[in-house]
């Protein structure tokens, strides 16, 4: 059994100036889906290097004709995959088509891994940039030349993809701490090869074993190795030393929704609806792969540079084709069937989704108590009460999501996530545009993009690190896939 002991659900008392809608050009989904690429040769239009940087890359990069041809082929294959992903956005209500397109995104990541991941390739980058306007037009017209891609198989979900052997500490410069937790911390790092910023999640093996989280830690690697979605964080690779395991992730500059919510006290109905819609699509994608997330809360939702969500921290995510029994998660968000140790599946995520919407609208969770046991009691039996300012449609969807009867809980019925998306509270939402990130965000983080800006993260005291240490490793066999 493990629950997050650091969760503090007191009502937010800080105020933030009214969130202004920031107008920025609507960009094509292929731009967003490939932001923060590890390879310079796979940059998209929104991250083209400066002329000076391009000249420097061209000077440093010397390729044979064969290598250049391979780079062009990889770039073209990648563009095909992007087009395939965008084709699916025009018919996202078809669950099978959406899963197929997400699988195309997985194939795209495979193509990335098959390239020389930390080398510059100016020619391939130039090829993509020259094709962008034409490809965007084809995407908007519903045209796609992409070839069918292999599915995410059950074997892949059980074993995960190979993530070790690509990177090591020598490839990065560790800059500062972005966050800390029970098992370790997350650092801002910078690649020694392409100069970009990433997040490095470091977990201590001894602590993982002591808290009996070996299975959850290995599950996190497996799940992140196969998922690929616009609203889910990307993991680039893993490695380990004698004491720690390391996961290289995208660096999402905008900080946590939790921080924004704490400063804002609560979100207006349209703002909460916007974030809920993007999170709903992330959950729908995970559930299509039989992955349950099990730890949905504002602390695990980041905002990217434009204000779109990124679901992070897959420490409790698990491939569950049938049912599971583990009690895990954050007390205020745990579903009653988990508290009562009954078998459960995807239903728990829709309960947590309801609690999240409630907290975004009210500024606090519905069953909070300073005593965790009292919180559990309220989850099992306390009536659901709403503040007077809640909209009627909001009350209705929350009543149906935060429902102890699994046969009536929205999202757990015959039509699954479609029931959630078709609820009147989401009536004005155009789901394919949400997936394509064509909808203007209600808040754009005030950051300097691409500069490793950490202004949206709290400062943590730095500690002496022993990363890369070589000594006796009694737990290495437990984390062999890292």
Automatic annotation (TrEMBL):
- Output the Gene3D superfamilies linked to this UniProt entry: Phosphorylase Kinase, domain 1, Transferase(Phosphotransferase) domain 1
MF terms from GO for this chain are:
ATP binding; cAMP-dependent protein kinase activity
Do the record's keywords include Transport?
no
Question: Residues in domain Protein kinase?
Answer: 172-426
**Transmembrane parts of this sequence:** none
Q: What is its EC number?
A: 2.7.11.11
| Binding sites annotated in the UniProt record for ATP | 210
Keyword annotations from UniProtKB, A to Z: ATP-binding, Kinase, Nucleotide-binding, Serine/threonine-protein kinase, Transferase
User: What is an annotated GO biological process for this record, any one?
Assistant: negative regulation of cytoplasmic mRNA processing body assembly
Q: PROSITE patterns attached here?
A: AGC_KINASE_CTER, PROTEIN_KINASE_ATP, PROTEIN_KINASE_DOM, PROTEIN_KINASE_ST
Q: Which Pfam families match?
A: Pkinase
User: What family does the Swiss-Prot or TrEMBL record give for this protein?
Assistant: Belongs to the protein kinase superfamily. AGC Ser/Thr protein kinase family. cAMP subfamily.
Query: Which protein is depicted?
Result: cAMP-dependent protein kinase
Species of origin reads Maudiozyma humilis
């Amino acid at each position: 059994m493990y629950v997050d002991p650091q969760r503090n659900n007191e009502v937010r008392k800080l105020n933030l100036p009214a969130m202004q809608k920031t107008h920025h050009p609507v960009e094509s989904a292929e731009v967003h889906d490939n932001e923060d690429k590890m390879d310079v040769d796979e940059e998209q239009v929104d991250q083209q290097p400066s002329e000076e940087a391009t000249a420097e890359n061209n000077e440093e990069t010397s390729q044979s004709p064969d290598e250049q041809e391979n780079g062009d082929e990889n770039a073209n294959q990648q563009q095909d995959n992007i087009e395939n992903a965008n084709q699916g956005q025009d018919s996202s209500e078809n669950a099978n088509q959406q899963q197929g397109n997400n699988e195309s995104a997985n194939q795209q990541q495979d193509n990335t891994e098959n390239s020389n991941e930390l080398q510059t390739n100016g020619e391939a980058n130039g090829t993509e940039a020259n094709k962008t306007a034409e490809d965007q037009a084809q995407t908007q017209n519903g045209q796609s030349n992409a070839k069918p891609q292999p599915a995410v198989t059950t074997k892949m979900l059980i074993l995960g993809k190979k993530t070790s052997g690509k990177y090591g500490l020598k490839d990065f410069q560790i800059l500062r701490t972005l966050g800390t937790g029970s098992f370790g911390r997350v650092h801002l790092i910078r690649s020694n090869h392409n100069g970009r910023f990433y997040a490095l999640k470091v977990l201590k093996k001894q602590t993982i074993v002591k808290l009996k989280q070996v299975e959850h830690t290995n599950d996190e690697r497996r799940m992140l190795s196969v998922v690929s979605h616009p609203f889910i964080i990307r993991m680039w690779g893993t490695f380990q030393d004698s004491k720690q395991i390391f996961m290289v992730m995208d660096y999402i500059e905008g900080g946590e929704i939790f921080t924004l919510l704490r400063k804002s006290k609560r979100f207006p109905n349209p703002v909460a609806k916007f974030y809920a819609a993007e999170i709903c699509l992330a959950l729908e994608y995970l559930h299509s792969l039989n992955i349950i997330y099990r730890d949905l809360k504002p602390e695990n939702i980041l905002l990217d540079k434009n204000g779109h969500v990124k679901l992070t921290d897959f420490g409790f995510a698990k491939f569950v084709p049938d049912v599971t029994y583990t009690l895990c998660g954050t007390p205020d968000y745990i579903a009653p069937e988990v508290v009562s140790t009954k078998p459960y599946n995807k239903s728990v995520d829709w309960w947590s989704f309801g609690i999240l919407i409630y907290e975004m609208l009210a500024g606090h969770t519905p069953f909070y108590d300073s005593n965790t046991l009292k919180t559990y009691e309220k989850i099992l039996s306390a009536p659901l009460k709403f503040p007077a300012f809640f909209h009627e449609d909001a009350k209705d969807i929350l009543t149906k999501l935060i429902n102890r009867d699994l046969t009536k809980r929205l999202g757990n019925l015959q039509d699954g996530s479609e029931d959630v998306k078709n609820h009147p509270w989401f009536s004005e939402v155009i789901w394919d545009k949400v997936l394509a990130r064509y909808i203007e965000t209600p808040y754009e983080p005030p950051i300097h993009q691409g500069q490793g800006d950490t202004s949206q993260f709290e400062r943590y005291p730095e500690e002496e690190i022993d990363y890369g240490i070589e000594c006796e490793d009694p737990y290495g066999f437990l984390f062999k896939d890292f």
